[in-house]
Design a protein that fits this description.
9 strands; three-stranded antiparallel beta sheet; 2 helices
Length: 190
């Protein structure tokens, strides 16, 4: 079998193409039917640590049914007041505590968790009482914990992969293949 420069260039191109196709497949996760979400997804749910609070008190919450790592805003509605922004975990659950502002008027209000892109909302009615002058709050022991992540949390999946790292690896492989082709062309022309 003869080894012409054209044959070597073709072989190098084929090898580069094979690497570019194979590398993304090696890191691909297998599709699993047991983790598939029903369509349409069920509406989110909201659980509160209390339904009656004093202005200035802390209110614990737990929302389920959001999308994994979705940014979720906690609002108090009557006049919209953003109480905080949280990030749902990998299972679409968001938990946290917010403080009801001391200037909130006594009466019925709506507490909402709102996720956008895609839009998801869970809400519950709460009664806000006048502020109390007390040092310690009486919160129930079964209130959700403070594990809500802030919106700027790390965007890695459970395998530790980030979109930026995977994109950088792909760009590096494309550059490597292009460099190989350029070197072979220069070699052929000289």
């Amino acid at each position: 079998m003869t080894r012409s420069p054209q044959w070597r260039g073709t072989l190098a191109s084929a090898a580069s193409a094979a690497v570019l196709v194979a590398v993304p497949l090696v890191g691909a996760q297998p599709a699993r039917a047991d983790t598939a979400q029903p369509y349409p997804p069920p509406p989110p749910t909201l659980t509160l640590s209390a339904t009656t609070v004093h202005a200035g008190d802390r209110l614990g919450f737990r929302g389920t049914g959001f999308f994994p790592r979705q940014r979720v805003e906690a609002d108090l509605r009557s006049h919209v007041v953003v109480l905080g922004v949280f990030r749902a975990n990998a299972h679409g659950v968001v938990t946290g505590r917010v403080t009801i502002p001391r200037r909130t008027r006594p009466g019925l209000h709506t507490f909402e968790l709102v996720g956008r892109n895609p839009y998801r909302k869970a809400s519950a009615r709460i009664r806000v009482l006048r502020p109390e002058h007390r040092a310690e709050l009486n919160e129930s022991d079964n209130a959700p914990d403070d594990s809500g992540q802030p919106a700027g949390a790390d965007a890695t999946d459970e395998g530790g992969h980030t979109p930026l790292a995977e994109g950088s690896a792909a760009a590096g492989l494309v550059s490597l293949g292009g460099g190989t082709m350029l070197a072979l062309r220069r070699r052929r022309s000289s």
